[in-house]
């Protein structure tokens, strides 16, 4: 009965010509579909946009445009405070480079909040200088510590004491691409180092787990399963998505093939059988992978000649969304709805899409 309902797509693009690589949800607000994204043009001032998708009206509204005199490489949000955000920024003057992590504030957004399209300066509450561009800035929401990584190290920063401690250094000839905190074990941080995954214990700065040669080419992204301990997904330049138990690094639990370089992978925060991936061709793929999820294996029942039968559903690609015209560099699930997600392209075009109703009700019913 739901098969004929259309899947909606809504597009938001900054008025000026920008480039981008970063979009994230605002997990501190679970009532609204909020997303934060940044632009990273090397030759002009850049912007951070806070947008809201109103499902009833079918509109994307802007609730803040923040100007920054420099490059905003990536943006990150606090896990519980909807007004707190972080950005990796860079300034280039001649041959000089200045890289920083900054903390700044976002307005609170409710259902009745009016749009804010007037541009305002991005005013940092905290600035942390670094020798290299930062690829990750993470807060576990439980203390004053931040985890941030650049291409050569993963660091723990005490905001109150303004002290930095190096947790892990990349091996010679390798680069750290991204870091993520384990939501089930907040003392563990996983980092991508070329085509390897390194899991470090922040309590003693020791490597706890390591997946060597996780992909044949560089790993581009990783995400922890929010509902199943020790499990992660990785995407790579080798056009594959892999599912891992970090305690058993010899072989992946499952591998999905993609036709292009995988740029981003994201678990659905409520239903971890749903997975988003985006790629260099501009496609955003919605996968349903029950076999390695925390959900019970779904089955379809039917009756034949008076006998009831159940067919176990196979893992599948639910839908390929092809609304982006350039590389889809990043994607994110909404914190306000398990069925809404957004992606951003190289040209800073944001597309908000929905899980097809038929798949939604298969999971719910």
How would you describe what is shown here?
- This protein is an all-beta fold and 365 residues long.
- The protein has one domain (9-364): 7 Propeller (Methylamine Dehydrogenase, Chain H).
- The chain is 2% helix and 51% strand.
- It is built from 1 helix and 31 strands.
- It has a 5-stranded mixed sheet, with no helix packed on it. It has a 4-stranded antiparallel sheet with strand order 1-31-30-29, with no helix packed on it.
- Strand 12 (145-149) and strand 13 (153-158) form a beta hairpin.
- The longest helix is centred in the C-terminal third of the chain and has 8 residues, at 357-364.
- Residues 1-6 have low confidence and may be disordered.
Q: If helices are DSSP runs of H or I spanning 4 or more residues, what is the number of helices? A: 1
As a whole number of angstroms, the C-alpha radius of gyration is 21 Å
Domain module tally:
1
Q: According to CATH, what is the class?
A: Mainly Beta
Q: Write the CATH fold name.
A: Methylamine Dehydrogenase, Chain H
Structural class: mainly beta
Global outline: globular
């Amino acid at each position: 009965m739901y098969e004929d309902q259309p899947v909606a797509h809504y597009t938001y693009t900054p008025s000026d010509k920008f480039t981008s690589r970063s979009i994230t949800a605002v997990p501190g607000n679970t009532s609204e579909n909020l997303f934060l994204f940044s632009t990273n043009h090397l030759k002009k001032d850049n912007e951070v946009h806070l947008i809201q998708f109103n499902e009833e009206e079918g509109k994307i509204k802007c609730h803040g445009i923040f100007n920054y005199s420099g490059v905003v490489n990536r943006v990150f949000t606090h896990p519980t405070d909807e007004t707190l955000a972080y950005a990796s920024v860079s300034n280039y003057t001649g041959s000089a480079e200045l890289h920083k992590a900054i903390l700044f504030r976002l307005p609170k957004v409710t259902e009745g909040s009016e749009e804010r399209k007037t541009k305002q300066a991005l005013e940092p509450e905290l600035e942390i200088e670094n020798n290299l561009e930062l690829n990750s800035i993470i807060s576990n929401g439980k203390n004053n510590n931040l985890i941030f990584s650049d291409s050569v190290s993963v660091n723990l920063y005490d905001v109150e004491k303004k002290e930095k401690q190096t947790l892990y250094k990349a091996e010679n000839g390798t680069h750290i691409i991204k870091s993520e905190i384990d939501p089930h074990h907040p003392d563990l941080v996983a980092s991508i180092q070329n085509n390897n995954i390194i899991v470090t214990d922040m309590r003693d700065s020791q490597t706890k787990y390591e997946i060597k040669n996780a992909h044949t080419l560089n790993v581009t992204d990783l995400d922890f399963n929010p509902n199943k301990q020790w499990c992660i997904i990785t995407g790579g330049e080798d056009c594959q998505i892999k599912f891992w138990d970090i305690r058993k690094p010899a072989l992946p639990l499952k591998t999905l093939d993609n036709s292009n370089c995988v740029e981003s992978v994201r678990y659905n925060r409520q239903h971890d059988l749903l997975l988003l991936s985006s790629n260099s061709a501009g496609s955003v793929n919605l996968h349903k992978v029950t076999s390695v999820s925390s959900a019970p294996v779904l089955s379809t029942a039917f009756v034949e000649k008076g006998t009831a039968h159940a067919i176990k559903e196979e893992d599948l690609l639910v839908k390929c969304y092809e609304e982006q015209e350039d590389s889809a560099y990043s994607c994110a699930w909404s914190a306000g709805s398990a069925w809404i997600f957004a992606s951003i392209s190289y040209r800073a075009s944001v597309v908000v899409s929905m899980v097809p109703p038929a798949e939604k009700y298969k999971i719910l019913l």
